[in-house]
Design goal:
Radius of gyration: 28 Å
Distance between the termini: 90 Å
Shape: elongated
Number of helices: 8
Largest sheet: none
Strand content: under 5%
Structural class: mainly alpha
Number of strands: 0
Helix content: over 70%
Order of helices and strands: HHHHHHHH
């Protein structure tokens, strides 16, 4: 039994997804890179196209040109991404024109205190900032952070104790 004659310049497509992926992925990334100008974006878009192909490989693998299908999906995704980023950029620029200048009246000692707060464990720093900067009540902090009021009280207590310890150590040095 002989193989059917191949068309000139015909692309030989493996029918197993793994070999298809290995063969086509670098080429699809190259096309996506040309459209996006970013290696990371190109890889993300190519991966998404191959994920979609893998999900429906039983159908796509039987296409005469599954490589063309993957490229069509990848280029559509690349253009969609480009349009989305362009729209987001325009929105940010529009909002930037309406931006208020925010200033903080912090003394050097305030800055030192807040650097110590930032050095606390994440939850303790969050509780201190919400309580002292925004003057939020325990119940409100619990709602914002999605934790129990008792957890807020505990974190606030631990944070105050740790800050007192660190501030006393600083005074001694």
């Amino acid at each position: 039994m002989t193989n059917p004659p191949q068309r000139p310049n015909a692309v030989r497509i493996p029918r197993h997804f793994e070999s298809f992926y290995r063969d086509q992925y670098p080429r699809v990334v190259a096309v996506c890179y040309a459209l996006s100008g970013s290696q990371a974006a190109a890889e993300d878009v190519a991966q998404e196209a191959f994920i979609r192909a893998h999900r429906d490989w039983e159908t796509i693998g039987r296409y005469e040109r599954p490589d063309a299908w993957v490229r069509r999906v990848a280029t559509n995704l690349a253009f969609s991404r480009y349009r989305r980023l362009k729209a987001e950029s325009r929105a940010v620029l529009r909002l930037a024109g309406n931006r208020q200048e925010i200033t903080f009246d912090m003394t050097e000692s305030d800055d030192k205190l807040w650097s110590k707060v930032r050095a606390l464990p994440r939850r303790q720093a969050q509780v201190i900032a919400l309580h002292y900067v925004e003057d939020r009540a325990i119940a409100d902090i619990a709602t914002v952070l999605g934790i129990a009021e008792g957890s807020v009280k505990s974190a606030l207590h631990k944070a105050r104790a740790k800050l007192a310890e660190r501030l006393s150590e600083e005074e001694l040095t």
